[in-house]
Amino acid sequence: MLLCIDCGNTNTVFSVWDGVEFTATWRIATDHRRTADEYFVWLNTLMQLKGMQGRISEAIISSTAPRVVFNLRVLCNRYFDCRPYVVGKPGCELPVAPRVDVGTTVGPDRLVNTVAGFERHGGDLIVVDFGTATTFDVVAPDGAYIGGVIAPGVNLSLEALHMAAAALPHVDVTKPQGVIGTNTVACIQSGVYWGYIGLVEGIVRQIRMERDRPMKVIATGGLASLFDLGFDLFDKVEDDLTMHGLRLIFDYNKGLGA
Question: What is the DSSP string of the chain?
Fold first, then answer.
């Protein structure tokens, strides 16, 4: 079985691929102090509770938190007796190399989403990922990542607002009843929700103008479905996009004999 690990700045997601489908997915807070032994105890317990049969024999990692990668590598080496592929590192190739400024390091999550988005939807694509940051990835007709946009994430913006203005409460992200709030919480929710709707619409419009061609838009990330409610922002919301991309990159590298 293949273990796919998507390590973000806030959460780390583990998914198990049995050769046909992802049979289980678990999430844990990202913490660079967590050891390989702790990862294994947690993961092994969940696999037993799931009643999973078979043994993990391969692994691939995408991580936007560099300090976490070492212990994830140790986890794979020590407990699964395999050397994991790490997206963006030597020994892990991409089907199509990114075309960006020389010396630029592209976040591995963006590369993975590009591969997955292209396989499912083709090129001339914008991938919007609602994570710790809200990112827009532009995919060329041949599947290359050619750049994008990085904006503060929804929850990050809320946290910054709460920290900078102590009198304002911390609120959950939700679609408000209307634009005009009649209390403090509703006002904040409206500002964040409608503000990000406008941000997505505006950035997508500008990308399309700059590329001067029709472009499909897909969304992923925890809050993607919330911003898809009653709007025509996205052609599709893909909850499993990153895991699908990790599996594709793994298969590509195995095909190369890497």
Answer: -EEEEEE-SSEEEEEEE-SSSEEEEEEEE--TT--HHHHHHHHHHHHHHTT--S---EEEEEES-HHHHHHHHHHHHHHS----EETTSTT---SS-----TTPPPPHHHHHHHHHHHHHH-SSEEEEEESSEEEEEEE-TTS-EEEEEEEE-HHHHHHHHHHH-TTSPP------SSSS-SSHHHHHHHHHHHHHHHHHHHHHHHHHHHHTS--EEEEEETTTTGGGTT--S-SEE-TTHHHHHHHHHHHHHHHHT-
